[in-house]
TrEMBL record, chain A:
Organism superkingdom: Eukaryota
UniProt gene name: pigt
Name the UniProt record assigns to this protein: GPI transamidase component PIG-T
InterPro entries tied to this protein: PIG-T
Keyword Signal carried by entry: yes
Single GO cellular component term: GPI-anchor transamidase complex
Leader sequence residues: 1-26
Organism, as annotated: Gymnodraco acuticeps (Antarctic dragonfish)
Lineage: Eukaryota, Metazoa, Chordata, Craniata, Vertebrata
GO biological process: attachment of GPI anchor to protein
Region (Disordered): 44-101
From TrEMBL, chain B:
TM region(s), chain numbering: 68-99, 179-208, 229-251, 257-278, 285-302, 314-342, 354-379, 385-407
Family as reported in the entry's similarity comment: Belongs to the PIGU family.
Coiled-coil segments: none
Keyword Transmembrane helix in record: yes
Domain of life of the organism encoding this protein: Eukaryota
Pathway assigned in UniProt: Glycolipid biosynthesis; glycosylphosphatidylinositol-anchor biosynthesis
Signal peptide annotation: 1-25
Pfam families named among the record's database cross-references: PIG-U (PF06728)
Mode of membrane association: Multi-pass membrane protein
Stated name of the protein: Phosphatidylinositol glycan anchor biosynthesis class U protein
Record keywords, A-Z: Endoplasmic reticulum, GPI-anchor biosynthesis, Membrane, Signal, Transmembrane, Transmembrane helix
Gene name for this UniProt entry: pigu
GO CC terms in record: GPI-anchor transamidase complex
Length: 648, 435
């Protein structure tokens, strides 16, 4: 969807500091060349950098700007170098012969306004190969063999899997780079050559369950859906027939070290060198939020898209709590977070960088970063222009004299105000008792003057029977009729409810979606071992193209060239966001689990009473009761019968 | 007689209309005793909503009504309350006419028997007089219309009321001797909820008795009549099912309606025996017990028909009772239908053994249902066993009630044959026992 094409910040590089050679990172060629020009224009101070060229230039300023591609939900990198206005020479991006495979690693650290700190790792392996053609791929270098075999065996076109512990608090932390719902989430696009999609999906989940040591084998038809609009392929290819899409979540999945270890093993450097040495589970899981993911998709190798390659993107996002790990002091360093420092990049990586988000603090008033880095980078992330300090681990000088890198952020003051996220959602269950209930989903549009449509996807297990006629969508007290509803009712013990709708969120409003449900009584063997804990209902997924924050900027007085500020949407006017709500925990009525024998006996007794009394009346007839003979007479008769004499 | 009936109808309609306007209506329509997954009005509305969305109502597991019902309410959804009140009125009037006709026949038969001196002399007090029979039709209508069970069922808009209307029309047509209408209404009732299939036997017995066809397997006329009736019954069933197919364009409704009734996948608590039993059942025995429980409903048809072949109307009553006790999703509306017949057997009261106890148990259980439900579902201070215990007791009471009436009926017949005051051989007063 929109996710594709969002980001390229094409930037200019101003080169500065004396001794630094900037190897403008040799770009993966961007997909869309069209954005170059647009992006270029708005950088007023221009310097030039030709691709792949090292240039030494006299320092103009203290900091250097570097062309960066910045990760985002969309994940398309833009390569960075641009030809530029003042520069006399204009060069087209020159295609440098790419190696067959390529590995990059990076870490983004963003101080959050709540005082927590957000660290996001990304590892990307690109491999120009074709798993789908007849010949078997047997030589693996950087790409993990286990995943390569999965792709070719199950004809996977795109695979996205995430394991998350904790809930991302959008209102305090802003939007994450890679959103993920609590628990496990898996969605897969299959090649259209697959005939038995359900069978393949079942096998695939079992295999992935083994690879990631997770309970993905609990994914079956009762929690799998085929969303019609919410999940579009992120890679190349335009087959969007949702018969080949499967989506499932396991909100109850608990993520821990046993999931991290196999995830790390997929990396070329394992946990031996590079950024991965920071991934120590005793620290990672001592955090407020932990999310690890694997995304596999086909991407274009060059911007004409003549050849495609497979991209494996492994991401790990973690939010460290201010109070538990910082002891309440607002001071962060790599060592404090991960109890490790960095000494080298992964030798197999073609790029290895640390980005620290300093947007909120351009002048260094709010916090102080040490060691100071001369490299700066700007990127559009989630509709906002962010500035990052960059540490390039490929440069030996980064590690300084102590041969180790330990960036440290020390706050000077604790103020600072976060811009509220434009789109935000929450969900809860209303009602009391165990018979019925109502799911409320609240979607907030915090944009001051623009409305935008969102796609809401709800997957509700079959044992909460939704009544779609009770669905109401209201915003600002008025009925807000969804323009598109795709509803698939559940089948008992077979498939869940799927509700997808397209709702227009008016500006600066809360839209409330409510739907009533009825709680089913299950068979006693269908309950979880702790039935009174409740049953989880997976997060709602809200996908939307949100107007970007930069475009929202109405502050005309800001210091900016006049030629750039007449038309309001000069940058990309909207960006793709996916928001996950909380999962729900719903109680169901329970039978008494200690009673199966008793119940079987008692009910059968009642049936037998019915049967018996009717049988009695049906088979017997009325007779006059004759007085029974006395005991002596009866005994005499028995003896007489034994003797063969007629009784008395 | 028309005036009291009209008055009764007006009273009944007023009560219902008042309840529809009150806040109780919502509460009642959620009660599990009153609505089952098969008959809930909420699910009918859901089915209509699904149709509006362009989704087949049978693609999910919420809607289990037959296609005719959904098309009926497609047009009548705005007049639902009137429809349900009308259904109750139709049922009551049909029962009224049925009983009136039946009484005439009973009286005629009794007259012939008296003229033929078939009754023993001391049985005169068992003979029914026209005076005491005069108010029975009205009582039956009253028992149906003013029964709290019927009122609850109507206020909850349970489609059980419609099924009852169809069943009572079937009984009326049968008692009036209209073979074709009887077959058509029976097939409609079967189409709505399989179980009335068992009423086939009683209808056949009654119609044959009326047409003086002896029940004799060697007689061609007997078989010819059965073939005729079966043809009409199956033919109209076929027409109705095909009509549903053409209305809907698919056969989805068969598993969703009849599969649902027979395989009991929905374990929502109700007043029946199935829900808790199958919630607690071991999975590998499930199919076995399912078969046993379902066969149990149909099983009594043949022995009862043999035993009661002279009394098909009592047979209808017995079978309605058996169905409403042992069916998979019973509601109080089903019970109301067979309870309406009780005034018809008021002459059996002297032979009933434990009617007082049974009535007390039924009343107590009816009061305890909502109490224990509240304790389990809302207060959380009781568990499912409490509610289950009450359903057990309620069903035992129903079984005792029915078997008591059956006993009394058989005993009266016995006395009509052998005299009321029987003596033992030694001259003392005899006690009758079943042997």
């Amino acid at each position: 969807m929109a996710a594709h094409g969002c980001n390229y910040s094409a930037l200019l590089l101003i080169i500065c500091s004396v001794s630094v050679f900037i190897v403008a990172d040799s770009q993966d060629t961007t997909l869309s060349g069209g954005h170059h020009a647009a992006a270029v224009e708005d950088n007023p101070q221009a310097a030039t950098e030709a691709a792949g060229k090292t240039s030494e230039q006299p320092a103009v300023e203290e900091r250097s700007w570097e062309a960066t591609e910045v990760e985002e939900a969309t994940l398309h990198e833009a390569a960075g170098d641009k030809q530029d206005t003042p520069a006399p020479e204009t060069e087209a991006p020159s295609p440098v012969p790419q190696p067959k495979d390529d590995f990059q690693e990076e870490l983004v650290i963003r101080p959050l306004h709540s005082g927590d700190i957000y660290a996001s790792f990304q590892f990307r392996t690109l491999w120009e190969t074709d798993f789908m053609s007849g010949n078997k791929v047997s030589h693996y270098r950087l790409f993990p063999k286990s995943l390569g075999q999965v792709i070719s065996k199950f004809s996977v076109r795109e695979l996205h899997i995430s394991f998350t512990q904790g809930y991302w608090r959008t209102m305090q932390w802003g939007q994450p780079f890679q959103p993920a719902p609590p628990g496990a989430e898996l969605w897969v696009w299959f090649q259209d050559s697959v005939t038995d999609v359900d069978g393949t999906w079942k096998e695939l989940t079992n295999v992935l369950s083994g690879i990631f040591c997770a309970s993905l084998n609990f994914i079956d038809s009762t929690n799998t859906v085929q969303p019609s609009a919410s999940f579009k392929p992120l890679g190349i290819g335009n087959v969007t027939d949702h018969r080949f899409l499967r989506y499932a979540t396991l909100p109850r999945e608990i993520v821990c070290t046993e999931n991290l270890t196999p995830w790390k093993k997929l990396l070329p450097c394992g946990s031996k060198a590079g950024l991965t040495v920071l991934l120590k589970s005793e620290k990672l899981f001592h955090s407020s939020f932990h999310s690890q993911a694997v995304h596999i998709r086909p991407v274009c190798q060059d911007w004409q898209c003549k050849t495609t390659s497979w991209e494996l993107r492994q991401t790990l996002n973690v939010v460290f709590d201010l109070h538990t790990s910082g002891q309440g002091k607002r001071e962060w360093s790599l060592f404090k977070m991960f109890s490790r420092t960095l000494t080298e990049a992964c030798p197999l990586a073609s790029s290895s960088k640390i980005y620290i988000d300093i947007t909120d603090d351009p002048q260094g008033e709010l916090f102080e970063l040490s060691p100071a880095t001369p490299l700066l980078s700007q990127a559009m992330v989630l509709g906002d222009r962010r500035t990052f300090s960059v540490y390039d681990l490929m440069q030996p000088v980064t590690f300084g004299t102590v041969r180790s890198l330990n960036p440290l952020i020390r706050w000077k003051s604790s103020e600072g105000d976060m811009l509220r996220p434009l789109l935000h959602a929450e969900r809860y269950v209303a009602g009391y008792g165990l018979q019925t209930g109502e799911i409320h989903t609240l979607m907030y549009n915090n944009h001051p003057y623009r409305s935008f449509p969102v796609l809401l996807l709800d997957t509700v297990p079959w044992y909460l029977r939704l009544y779609i006629h009770t669905l109401t969508v209201t915003s600002k007290g008025k009925d807000n009729k969804p323009s598109y509803i795709h509803y698939q009712p559940s089948k008992d013990r077979l498939r869940p409810h799927l509700l997808e709708m397209l709702v227009q969120l008016p500006p600066n409003s809360v839209t409330e979606v409510t739907v009533q449900f009825e709680r089913a009584l299950l068979k006693w063997t269908e309950y979880t071992p702790d039935p009174n804990h409740g049953f989880y209902v997976g997060s709602s997924v809200i996908s939307s193209l949100v107007p970007s924050i930069v475009a929202m900027d109405t502050n005309i007085t800001m210091d900016r060239p006049l030629f750039s500020s007449f038309f309001p949407c000069k940058e990309e006017s909207s960006f793709f966001v996916r928001v996950y709500t909380e999962p729900l925990l719903v109680n169901l009525p329970t039978p008494d689990f200690s009673m199966p024998y008793n119940v079987i006996c008692l009910t059968c007794t009642v049936v037998a009473v019915g049967y018996g009394s009717l049988y009695n009346l049906l088979t017997r007839s009325f007779q006059i009761e004759e007085p029974s003979p006395g005991l002596a007479k009866r005994l005499a008769n028995i003896i007489r019968r034994m003797r063969g004499v007629p009784p008395l | 007689m028309a005036a009291p009936l009209t008055l009764l109808l007006i009273v009944a309609v007023t009560i219902r209309a008042a309840l529809y306007r009150s806040s109780l209506a919502d509460l009642i329509s959620e009660r599990v005793e009153v609505v089952s997954p098969l008959t809930a009005w909420k699910r009918v509305v859901e089915g209509l909503a699904l149709l509006d969305l362009g989704v087949s109502p049978y693609s999910g597991d919420v809607f289990h009504e037959t296609p005719l019902i959904i098309y009926l309410f497609h047009f009548l959804v705005d007049y639902a309350e009137i429809t349900f009140m009308l259904a109750d009125v139709i049922t009551a009037v049909a029962l009224y006419l049925t009983v009136k006709e039946y009484n005439k026949q009973v009286f005629r038969k009794q007259k012939y028997a008296l003229e033929a001196d078939r009754y023993p002399l001391d049985c005169l007090e068992l003979i029914r007089s026209p005076k005491e029979m005069f108010y029975i039709p009205l009582k039956v209508a009253m028992f149906y219309l003013l029964n709290p069970f019927t009122i609850l069922s109507c206020v909850a808009k349970s489609t059980c009321g419609l099924n009852n209307a169809v069943l009572s029309l079937f009984i009326l047509a049968t008692v009036k001797g209209n073979v074709l209408l009887s077959a058509i209404f029976l097939s409609l009732a079967t189409y709505q909820s399989i179980y009335p299939l068992t009423l086939c036997a009683s209808a056949l017995l009654y119609l044959m008795q009326r047409q003086y066809i002896p029940v004799n397997f060697r007689r061609a006329s007997f078989w010819w009549f059965i073939v005729q009736y079966a043809f009409m019954y199956l033919g109209s069933l076929f027409v109705i099912v095909c009509l549903s197919f053409f209305l809907l364009g698919s056969w989805d409704f068969l598993p969703s309606v009849y599969g649902f009734i027979l395989s009991v996948p929905d374990l929502t608590p109700n007043i029946g025996l199935f829900w808790y039993f199958f919630a607690e059942m071991f999975e590998h025995f499930r199919l076995f017990f399912l078969c046993v429980f379902q066969i149990n409903v149909f099983f009594y048809t043949i022995p009862l028909s043999i035993k009661l072949k002279e009394h098909p109307v009592f047979l209808i009553f017995m079978q309605l009772a058996v169905i409403s006790i042992f069916k998979s999703y019973p509601t109080v509306g089903d019970i109301a239908l067979y309870m309406a017949f009780l005034p018809m057997w008021s002459h059996l009261h002297r032979f009933l053994r434990n009617i007082f106890l049974v009535c007390c148990v039924l009343l107590t259980c009816s009061a305890l249902f909502p109490v224990l439900w509240h304790l389990w579902i809302y207060a959380g201070s009781a568990n499912s066993n409490f509610y289950y215990a009450i359903t057990l007791l309620f069903n035992v009471a129903q079984i005792l009630l029915v078997s008591d009436y059956f006993y009394a009926f058989l005993r009266r017949e016995h006395h009509l044959c052998y005299g009321l005051y029987l003596k033992r051989k030694d001259g003392y007063e005899a006690t009758l026992v079943l042997k």
